[in-house]
Amino acid sequence: MKRSLFVESLLVVSSLLLAGDALAADTRSKPAERKSVSLTIYNENLGLVREVRATTLATGVQNLWFEGVTALIDPTSVHIRSVDSPDAITVLEQNFEYDLISPDRLMEKYLGQEVELVMTRGEREETVKARLIGTQGGTVYELADGKIAVNPPGRVILPALPSGLISKPSLVWLVDSKKAKQTLEASYLTAGMGWKADYVAVLAADDSKLDLSGWVTINNHSGSGFENASLKLVAGDVNRVRPEMDRMVTLGAVEMKAGRAANQFQEESFFEYHLYTLERPATVKDNQTKQIALLSAEDVKAKKSFVVEPQNNWWFSRMDGMEKQKVGVKIAVDNTKANGMGMPLPKGTVRVYKKDSKGALQFVGEDSIDHTPEDETVRVKMGEAFDVVAERVQTNFEVLSSGHLYRSSYKVTLRNHKSEAITVSVVELLSGEWKITQSSHPHDKEASHRVRFDVPVAAKGSTDLTYTAEIRY
Fold first, then answer.
1. Tens digits of per-residue pLDDT, 334-348?
2. For the chain, how big is the Rg over CA atoms in Å?
3. Which residue of 27, 86, 92, 206 is most buried, as measured by CB atoms within 10 A?
4. Residue 433's CB: how many other CB atoms inside 10 A?
5. Reduced 3-state DSSP string for 276-342
6. pLDDT at 259 (0 to 100)
7. pLDDT at residue 333, rounded to an integer
8. How far apart are CA 107 and CA 99, in angstroms?
9. Positive or negative CA dihedral for 118, 119, 120, 125?
10. What was the pLDDT predicted at 159?
């Protein structure tokens, strides 16, 4: 009877494992053998590493040590192949070795064994033999005369490096190679990498235009560095099966200005995301925060607006007293080619500066933006207006139609202490079935439960917005 291919494979692997003593000597592939490396970094704690190395193997079955992988590698995502001879190598087993050499691990390995203690007595050193009997919270030794030494001064000398400890995280494959020299490609996912966008905007004196610089902030805490890597960034919300641990490190607010030639990334649509490819190699070191210029735009038209944010009014009850409200200040920019932009903007933080009367840049606000496609509007909340005041008061309340219909009137007083006229948008939330029966200013129904009144206010002046709404619950 002809045996299945699966059974044949099991028999081959079993015979190879049983013949472990006959394996060829271990082969070690070091980072210095890299012919190329490419990184694809995602927004949140995820990177894809692809390495190509020229490796000299022995023929037959052997352990291939692939040194220099990241410490936060996902071993289940690893893929290896021979670029030039795909049929010349077979992977039989894979291990991820990360038991790294450290003082604590060395001492743990020698627990219960004899070591040497070198202690200084006056001007001379004395070496004594002792048995390490404890490592919890310090070190405990049993001396030759039976006495116990706890954290003795001096240094410890170990006879040899214990087996199993390695200096760098490594992938170890049990492979069967039919060819000595091969070009191998290994790819894997890793945590500890991420990127975000940071934007620096400088407002013009009249707030009608701004210069915008975009910067990519890359964080690498994966446990490995990569020299002269091909770098790609994916902007978008990629679904992950397992929860992520946020190990991102971010820079504080920094003032940066890129030149007009700073656009170094080639942008393209990729699946339902956007891909940004750096058009030159980049070195990404371990435990490094790196910033690369993403974009630069000058004389971008901007629009400043004043907004009184919506309040949760209790339309079915009486409200007493005057309520003061903050007036928010926002800057809006159209992300269009006609406006000197038109590049899909990855999510990030926008920090805005403006020159004072002495010509020095001052920080005036920051806000986070989400991924913004071309031809959409970017809105940045700057803060609260100092010289614009809003006060609200309920001027009338009635219960109509057996308690299910309510009529409520409000007055919103807007006072402008600035030397120029402004328009303040007052946004209100209304629930249930509603209609506005009277208003001093026109309103725009932005949604089923949201209306906006645009109220002009003269310089050094005051304007009252009044309206009445009927609501049925």
1. 999 999 998 889 989
2. 34
3. 27
4. 11
5. EEECCCEEECCCEEEEEEEEEEEEEECEEEEEECCCCCCCCCCCCCCEEECCEEEEEEECCHHHCCC
6. 40
7. 96
8. 13
9. negative
10. 83
Q: Which of 392, 454, 447 minimizes the C-alpha distance to 422?
A: 454
Residues 6+ apart with CB under 8 A from 3: none
Structure tokens at 366: 């920051």
Q: Which two tokens stand for residue 226?
A: 């990569």
Residue 151: burial class (beta carbons within 10 Å; 0-12, 13-18, 19+): exposed
Question: Measured between alpha carbons, how far is 115 from 107 in angstroms, rounded to an integer?
Answer: 10
Distance CA 146, CA 159 (A): 21
Examine the pLDDT at 49 and tell me if it is beyond 90: yes
Q: State the Cα–Cα distance between residues 323 and 390, nearest whole angstrom.
A: 9
pTM for the model stands at 0.69
**Tokens representing 229?**
């890597």
Nearest residue to 172 via CA among 5, 44, 27, 357: 27
For the chain, report the end-to-end CA distance as a whole number of angstroms: 79
Proportion of the chain above pLDDT 70, given as a percent: 85
Q: Going from the N-terminus, what domains does the chain have, and what CATH number goes with each? A: 5-35+52-99+168-190 (no CATH), 103-157 (2.30.30), 386-473 (2.60.40.290)
Residues in the chain: 473
Torsion over CA: 17, 21, 23, 25 (sign)? positive
pLDDT in tens, 102-136: 677 677 777 888 888 888 777 788 888 888 888 88
Q: Are 382 and 331 in contact (CB under 8 A)?
A: yes
Q: How many CA atoms lie within 13 A of 269 on its CB side?
A: 4
Exposed/middle/buried for residue 188 (C-beta within 10 Å: 0-12, 13-18, 19+) = buried
pLDDT in tens, 229-238: 999 999 877 7
